[in-house]
Amino acid sequence: MTTRSFFSSLGISTTSSRWIQFSSICTSSISLLTKCPVQMTQQQQPLFLLKSITDYNHMKQFLGHIITNNIAIDEFSLMKLIDLSFSSSGSDVSAHLFTQFQDFINSEICTSMIRSFTHSNKHFLSIFVYIMMHKYGYVPDSSTFPAVLKSTAQVCRRRFGKSVHAYIFQTGFNSDVFTNTALVHMYATCTSIGEARRLFDEMPVKNSVSWNALITGYTHNRKFREAISTFREMQISGFEPGEVTMVGVLSACGHLGALNQGKWIHDYIVQKRLRLNVFVGTALIDMYAKCGVVDEAEKVFGAMRVKNVYTWNVLISGFTMNGQGEAALQAFSRMVMENFKPDGVTLLAVLCACCRQGLIKEGRRYFVSMEKEYGLRPGIEHYGCMVDLLGRAGFLNEAQELIRTMPYKPDPVVWRALLGACRIHGSTQLGEVAIRNLLGLEPNNGENYVLLSNLYARGHRWTKVGEVRDMMNRKGIRKIPGCSSIEVDDAVYEFVVSNSLDVELGEVYNMLADMKNEMKLAGYVAETEMVSYDIEEEEKENSLMYHSEKLALAFGLLKTSSDSTIRIVKNLRICKDCHGFCKIVSKIYKRNIVVRDRNLFHHFAGGLCSCKDYW
After folding, report:
1. 221-273: per-residue pLDDT in tens?
2. Do the beta carbons of residue 212 and residue 241 sit within 8 Å?
3. Which of 219-228, 405-414, 450-459 has the lowest mean pLDDT?
4. Which of 34, 224, 228, 230 is the most exposed place for a label (fewest CB within 10 A)?
5. Strands 499-500 and 593-596
6. DSSP letter (8 states) at residue 484
7. How far apart are CA 322 and CA 315, in angstroms?
8. How far apart are the first and last CA of the chain?
9. Using CA atoms, how far apart are residues 570 and 598, in angstroms rounded to an integer?
10. Taking a C-beta distance cutoff of 8 angstroms, is the pair 469, 460 a contact?
11. Of residues 419, 443, 447, the one with CA closest to residue 433
12. pTM metric for this prediction
């Protein structure tokens, strides 16, 4: 391509008058020409000016001057030109730059650009330069691949990553530990965790970063049990986990409710004198909060020398999810007093605290204060929380009006909040409005049909219940099965309705039968209205008895000491019958029980629940 045709492809004039015009633009706006160092040559001045250019049209004129005056370009200038042209006009113009400056470009410069673009989070540019390397025959080296694979992971381009992997294999770089670790990270981030594990197992050499890539990959893919077991493998193999590893495995413990394992990791951090920086400290707070031990979370918070807004958010959210609304609001006040600026996540946690505690007046005040006091525009998630707050309290008309007037199109969370309120207060007509909108947005979500079925069942409208079930069968929609887990002796056991993958249920069923008899003597009456089948009362009672959280609870009573707290994690919202069941069990057996359902924690003790039956 000739110089003139290259200019034409970019729409660049090569006349000196256009360069003079461009210089005057820069001079009048920034006065950079007068600020150029005196010793700077005429050829160096344009490169100095390039630092100020942010406009693509200015860049084109600048490029014209560089080429017509045969000014030697440097790496920074080339990167700036590629960046501006790529972001303004796509890859075509940037590709022309490789053609024009191919005498200057080499493998080392390409690798340097890839690493720089990756470091500055310009991941598509990093990938683009790698593609240009191949096109022009520049050979990557071992430092090229980790950078481009990191960018590939960040933008989740697994197909491209596989092509990079194939090239690595062909060129013999597959023995490099840093390249292999980057591949593990790429596959795990792009949700190919099985491929990441296979590659990890085949690595001839591993280091702590390799193990961390796999552990965080499992956590990223919600394979929490595998993350913890891999952490144990890492220790057996003699590798010392670092701070990043700790954050990943603590996250896994929190999601599983594996308190004992989380405590062990905390002890390990203390024994090894690992630095309790803001990331590890925040992860510990989050783990303890998600395991229902807010006191320990607060101790960690108090011990941290450095905190940020995320640390405060985790603490406030921890109080909220554990039913300590007043503590959450007090923590928020402390946060503001200590000059930390709240963000949208902070205010969402505060509104949720008001919602869980039924604090209508306070919730309205905080919602209004978002823009007035903190300059935060409420998002749809904040409106959804307000709909939940108003609906739970019985202000259904006000909740409906808020949905009608809010500046967003209602999403499924908003309609589900209204539907839940209708179920609580028995408003079938408004509930049908909510479900129609829900089904329009999520026609294949089984949870929506279950909510509608429960609404009809509460009103004994069995024909309608049957119609909903038939509709689900026609569409091939299945409801999500309830699953509960419990940690016993450092192992996590899972239960589903009437079954378990981890234990034989014979003794669990026998224990439940004994519990049922004692419960009835204590006044337990099954909440059979929760059963959406028109069957006999005894059959309804039996179907309720084998819910997953009851199985986990019976197993906990059998396998844990009488002075320990039973901790259960459930994937769905706890039903009204199981909630009442746990209250009575806590009183009869004198046990503290903590159930974390999809929405919040329920701390049962002495026949009462921390949610005050408001959930």
Report:
1. 999 999 999 999 999 999 988 888 999 999 999 998 889 999 999 998 888 88
2. yes
3. 450-459
4. 34
5. unpaired
6. E
7. 11
8. 70
9. 7
10. no
11. 419
12. 0.77
